[in-house]
Amino acid sequence: MTDSNFDRAAELIAKASRGVAFTGAGVSAESGIPTFRGEGGLWRKYDPIKVASIESFLADPSSYWSIARERGRESLAAEPNAAHRALAAMESAGHLAAVVTQNTDGLHAAAGSSRVIELHGSGRRVRCLDCGAEESRADVQERLEVELPPHCRTCGGSHIKPTVVFFGEAMPVAATEAAFELARACDLMLVVGSSLVVYPAADVPATAAERGAPLVIVNAEPTPLDDQAAVVIHGRAGEVLPKLAELASSAV
Ligand code: NAD
Ligand code: ZN
Hints:
Order of helices and strands: HEHHHHHEHEEEHEHEHEEH
Number of helices: 11
Largest sheet: 6 strands, parallel
Strand content: 15-25%
Distance between the termini: 23 Å
Structural class: alpha/beta
CATH superfamily of the largest domain: TPP-binding domain
Strand order of the largest sheet: 3-2-1-7-8-9
Helix content: 40-55%
Radius of gyration: 19 Å
Bound molecules: nicotinamide-adenine-dinucleotide, zinc ion
Number of domains: 2
Shape: elongated
């Protein structure tokens, strides 16, 4: 992590007018939401296929919701951090066209980013798989304290599910198309807090790099795309991003 890396990254951000930020769980770690992989990651505690696959959810929604009740207490109370705010500032300054995120926590919008593509859906909404009725995840959280699994308020069914993409489910078509279109057209791809091992999401930054857009990677650990990046900064998103936003604004 050298100053020249910061200067080079800031220069690329300052020059960009249709940059795209691609974010993962690491951007929200400093808001208190645990990542899946890496130190303190949830996968060291739970088996992902048991917890977040559509098959096991349909077979046993109570098990899913008892873990979601614990996680929801943390994630529904989480606030955007300095990294989310720096990305919103880069959009306001005209450098970023959009944020493409694998996160489901809604924190980019809460920080003020106006164009957010949620590749893995939203954990803020819940939909009934029987009748399609939707309600807010926060409302379900209140019921979880007394009702497992929670039932649909409209039809009484027992398969209400957050609008997040579970293992075994398809990615949302419109969001996926929008993400790849942005990746093909961008003049900078800024990756923040993603292990870049979840596919097809990780193909979004790879596509931008193939098209010749400079790739800037800010992550706590190395990623499989580091070799292709113009600049790699290993560090905490909440510390690195505000510096980059500030350097970029004084570089113009
Ligand atoms: P990941 O958990 O696989 O990887 C997170 C990466 O962030 C790791 O490489 C880690 O080194 C890095 N990291 C951790 N703390 C950091 C920090 N403070 N600053 C910078 N980097 C940091 O996450 P992923 O790549 O996003 O993909 C996994 C899946 O996890 C996605 O599908 C996503 O939907 C889901 N997820 C979402 C949330 C959320 O909504 N906040 C939380 C956990 C997992
Ligand atoms: Zn229903």
